[in-house]
UniProtKB/TrEMBL annotation:
Sequence ranges assigned to domain PHD-type in this UniProt record: 1-48
Species: Panurus biarmicus (Bearded tit)
PROSITE patterns recorded: EPHD, ZF_RING_2
GO cellular component annotations of the record: nucleus
Domain RING-type intervals: 63-112
Protein name: PHF7 protein
Name of the gene: Phf7
GO molecular-function terms, A-Z: zinc ion binding
Chain segments annotated as coiled-coil in the UniProt record: none
Length: 203
């Protein structure tokens, strides 16, 4: 392996007559690039593809993903969006974003370009999985679509408990008209039937 010097299963640089070979786990450490689409080509540090964008970052430019400074020029570890040419990011950061977003939602973190950005990142060795984003796993954000549904009165008097309510009458659940983050049964807060709105103590 041209990176670690050890033997074992290896892959060769695609360039004819190069002769360099490396372990797949050693590729990133050694500055090699593996393209994870057909034809699954791999390149050594000398022959790896380079971004063809003739720009340099402004002094103090930060990666929009981790908010840490980037290098002052394009390198293996510092990349730029080919579409807007303003978003500079670390290779590790954009790789992490790709793994979370998946192919359907992977885009430039600044200008939101998808087509040109994805093609460039593929060619620069960023692995972009063909799957739904990780935030869709197990309905992780399903609760955000649900409204508040329990009585927050200091003492809930409803026999069915705080999380039960009726459509109307003394056990109708009213949500705070300002924040909608707390609720009460009418009877638990002494609210007459004619009262149509209620505010929690915080509001």
């Amino acid at each position: 392996c041209c990176v670690c010097g050890q033997s074992g299963a290896t892959i060769m640089c695609r360039v004819e007559n190069c002769g360099r070979w490396f372990h797949l786990p050693c590729a990133k450490e050694g500055g090699c690039i593996c393209i994870y689409v057909t034809l699954y080509s791999s390149f050594c540090p000398e022959h790896r593809p380079q971004q063809d964008v003739q720009v340099t970052p402004e002094p103090g430019t930060e990666c929009p993903i981790c908010m840490e400074p980037v290098e002052d020029t394009k390198t293996f570890t510092t990349m730029v969006c080919p579409a807007c040419k303003r978003a500079w990011f670390h290779r590790d950061c954009v790789q992490g974003q790709a793994m979370c977003a998946g192919a359907l939602f992977f885009q430039c973190p600044l200008c939101r370009d998808r087509e040109e950005f994805c093609v460039e990142m593929f060619l620069m060795g960023i692995r972009i999985p063909f799957r739904l984003p990780t935030w869709e796993d197990n309905d992780a954000f399903a609760e955000l679509g649900e409204g508040h549904s329990q009585c927050n009165a200091r003492e809930c008097l409803y026999p069915g408990g705080r999380e039960e309510a009726e459509e109307e009458g003394p056990w109708e659940l009213l949500l705070c008209s300002s924040c909608a983050a707390e609720g009460t049964h009418r009877h638990c807060s002494g609210l007459r039937k004619s009262i149509r709105s209620w505010e929690c103590d915080s509001c």
